[in-house]
Amino acid sequence: MHRLLERQLKKIGYSGGSLSEKQLKLFMEAVDRAYRDSESDRKLLEHTLEISSKEMQQLYKDLEERSRSRLAESEAKYRFLAIHDNLTGIANRRYLEDELQALIKNQKNSASKFALLFLDLDRFKLINDTLGHNVGDRLLQEVAKRISPQLKSNDIFARIGGDEFVIVLMDIKKSNIKSIVDRIYLLTHQNWIVDEYDLEVTASIGVAIYPDDGEDMVELMKSADIAMYRSKESGRDRYTFFQTSNKKENSMSKTDILIIGGGPAGMVAAGTSRQYYSEKSVTVIKSNKHSLVPCGIPYIFGTMLDGVEDDMVPCGARSQKMGIDLLIDSVTDIDFDNKSVETTENGTIEYDKLIIATGSIPRKPTNITNYDAEGVYYVPKDAEYIKKVHDGVKDLETIAVIGTGFIGVEIACELAQSGKKIHLVGSRLLKHAFDPEFSDDMESLMLGDGIEFYKDKRTVAINTDESGRANAIVLDSGAVIECDGVIMATGYEPNTTLAKKSGLSMRQYNTIYVDEYMRTVKDDVFAIGDCAEKRHFITKRGVPIMLASTATAEARVAAANLYNINVVKSFSGTIDIFSTVIEDTCFASAGITEEDAKKQDISAISTVVVVDDKHPAKLPNSNKQTVKIVAMKSSGIVIGAQLIGSKDVGEMINILGVIIEKKMSVYDLLNLQVATHPLLTSAPTNYPIVQAAQNIASRQIGL
After folding, report:
1. What number is the average pLDDT over the span 444-460?
2. Residue 302 binned pLDDT confidence (cut-offs 50, 70, 90)
3. What is d(CA 264, CA 206) in angstroms, rounded to the nearest whole number?
4. CA gap 271, 559 in Å, rounded
């Protein structure tokens, strides 16, 4: 206001002193006019602000409504995605399980029933493999599109993974359930037009009724799953209602190729069979749900693997992907005349071709007193048992390991690295794979690492405390070694009880007789892996070689030649080929050792070369590499090799294995053309295999 008066005084020419009457009049008029203008401006401003405020309020309101609407749309979208299958648009596993749980909870006191159908497309993998995954995805969409309209509004239709669907039919009666399932089955029995393809794809369906076949979700789905697999085993393209007989011995099913055993040999045989005979059905029976990588077992006990789960192989997913039926069951009898087997859970299964791959089991040293006492652990290829071993020894401080083969040595090293005191008892280390000087190198690496080695000593007894638990071992020298537990790594023996019981011809070391194509004396029956006979590549005598690499090679030969000879086996005899790691140093061997050659009266010659595995040797991470080659003295044919060095020896021994298998001589190796590089290999001037061959060749011709 003060500034307003000053401005008006300036306008009437006031320069100081008293105002004249005229000036006063002019001043009062100016002030009144300015006030009116100011008041008008104020009212205009107030009116403008009022309008702006209302517009802003409306704008905020509009924005809030839009945000709320978009948020609701997003929430609805994400809710839909959370409970629906992204590919087909029908319900997903999460929605199915939530609804089933709630449904079963509400049905507890109700007399009404519902049916659960487990639907699996037959040989869906072939569609993906031959026509591509896009066609496979479109087929899955067509399945959902064809079946959905035929269901009631309160039924549930879900895709739970891959080509597996579940349908829940509400409020059914036993009198009409078959007609409903018939209708759904017929929907899958028609041809499918996908893009430009006319596909003949069928489905196997299993049906379970609540509460007759299961009173909770897990049991009900398992019953439907079992019934679905019975459909597949009965020839696919059908539906089966769950019955107790689905899993008991009075049922009957048939498969083209039946494999007993789900270890490396069995699973490779199954996969190879599918590759060569894709039109044939393949079934694998294995006793344990979970499979282990056999050679990975020692590393469960150290720092390499975090428990048994890290060594497991996902057989179920793998077999499903390959189109193989996997049964967790046990075979109790084989009828070769009627080409069938009896099982504990799945009744009688007929076969066209049978592969026995029952593997091996730990050898029990019955000559050791109390060999089965509490606190004495063995090392089978059984995930559940190995977990018990792992849990049983993890809190022990001092452990006796009996046996100095690969399993014993590797477990001893791993346990020692985890801070335990180890008493290792047995002959020189890995004596069947390496000559003494190599065993000595291993021993020098292991000693002082928490391992005390009782070399060439024999365990005669295990002492126990009052509760019967092992607390000491007794050596043949009379020495008593106290310990908290014992691990028996005394080797394995073929698991051939079933084969012997069924009348198969047996050979040395309790193995099943086979020819070079792994055929037994019974028509259409093959044996592979640890349970099958092995003949030495030089002497042709039986040898107790049990290796996953050998087993899988036999599996490929047997499976490829089930129905006709597809793969000619050009090499007769088994090569023992090994590798291991001790304290970051790699040891590997192939063929026969010099010591064993002498024992078998084989006239042999050997040489040892030591080179740097990089050139020049000053390069970072350069290591010494020791190569020993054993050859026939008369012909120079290479029959054995042993290596020490860095990880490179793991592949170099495979090269030497091929050299031995192909009966190459040291003279062939003199012309060996190899790729060398400073960071990867020894120098071309002294490549170890060539250098060793040259040493033997020069000695043969007297240079």
Report:
1. 91
2. confident
3. 30
4. 9
Sign, Cα dihedral of 682, 683, 687, 688: negative
d(CA 661, CA 590): 10
Instruction: Give Cα 310 distance to the centre of its chain.
Output: 9
Q: Which residues contact 473 (CB under 8 A, 6 or more apart)?
A: 400, 402, 423, 425, 459, 461, 462, 463, 480, 481, 483, 486
Q: Tell which CATH classification among 3.40.50.300, 3.40.50.1820, 3.50.50.60, 3.10.20.120 matches the domain 376-493.
A: 3.50.50.60
Domain boundaries defined on the chain: 93-241, 376-493, 577-701
Same topology between domain 93-241 and domain 577-701 = no
- Per-residue pLDDT band for 332 (boundaries 50, 70, 90) equals very high
Please tell me whether residue 641 adopts helix, strand or coil conformation: strand
Residue 506, token pair as written in the block:
């047996």
608-660: per-residue pLDDT in tens? 999 999 999 999 999 999 999 999 999 999 999 999 999 999 999 999 999 99
**Nearest alpha-carbon partner for 233 in 319, 121, 327, 356:** 327
Q: What is the pTM of this model?
A: 0.65
**Given a cut of 70, is residue 32 above it in pLDDT?**
no
Which run of H or of E encompasses 140? helix 133-147
The SS3 assignment for 86 reads coil
Taking the C-alpha atoms of residue 287 and residue 285, their distance in angstroms, rounded to an integer, is 7
Pick the CATH number of 577-701 from 3.40.50.12780, 3.20.20.370, 3.50.50.60, 3.40.109.10: 3.50.50.60
pLDDT tens per residue, range 207-254: 999 988 888 888 899 899 999 988 887 778 889 998 765 444 445 689
Give CATH superfamily name and number for 93-241. Reverse transcriptase/Diguanylate cyclase domain (3.30.70.270)
User: What mean pLDDT, rounded, does the chain reach?
Assistant: 88
> Are 589 and 641 contacting, i.e. CB atoms less than 8 angstroms apart?
yes
